[in-house]
Amino acid sequence: MDHLSTVTNWEDMQLDCLSIIFSKLGLDDLTTSIPFVCKSWSQVSSHPFFYQVLDFRFLDLNPSSSFSKIFSSQYSLPRFTFSSFLKLAMAQSHGAAFDLRFSSLFPPSIEVLSLASITCPRLKTLCLPRICFDDEVRFFNLLSKWRDLEWLEIESKPFKLREMAEQIGIHCSKFYGMKIRGLIRKEDVTGIVDFLPKIEVLDLSGSQIRKEEVLAIVDGCRELKRLSLKECVGFEADEEVRRRARGIQVFEFDGCRVEDGLRNSEDQSEVLEQTFMYFDDCFEMWMF
Asked: What PANTHER family does the record point to (predicted)?
């Protein structure tokens, strides 16, 4: 504090002090404010250390937002695009990024994810809104590039979850957990059990899942430390479920219920899942 009180010029601040301060800032300040204060600040703020976590979820990325206008002005762009901001952040990381999180309002295209697989090869955490059905196979192939991946979070379950689990099981030896939400079918569960038997954390909160599938997960994934099934529809945590899940350290099932008239047929589940995906696509088209 004594040193800070005697500083008369911003560039005179010690580099370790700047590093501590900059580490508390978001991507918006690191790209539009700090680099334009002075040369020393610009040099320090461009260090890959500050771009190890690329979290775009809480930024106002609308073209009319103040951040977008400032970004366009500072970098002499005719208009703001999320891709230009994304590419800058990824380039600044110089391959050091290990945490990548996207906003549901600005989901990444498969081209963006392809770029991320090249510029961010050390990813440990990846959080996505959803993967378009037509892009699922291409996304699954990208998983071979992220061999250090440990945690995957997707707001809407991929239709071909089994295929995704297989790719993770083959290429991501450090993988320990996943969070997804959707209609959990029998083949989804067998994919998890067959290819990710050592998974430690599984969060299916808000999903539709039957008791048979819950028991298959509990019995098949013997190293589970946390299983979250909060607000799920299709089963209740009765005595049998709780007894067979006793080996799981944290078993969350608050709000689970079986709705009247809910049929358990696989055909109905596929129709519902495709319907939800259709509405998700319509929402994204409306947003853009």
From this structure: F-BOX AND LEUCINE-RICH REPEAT PROTEIN 6, F-BOX DOMAIN CONTAINING PROTEIN, EXPRESSED
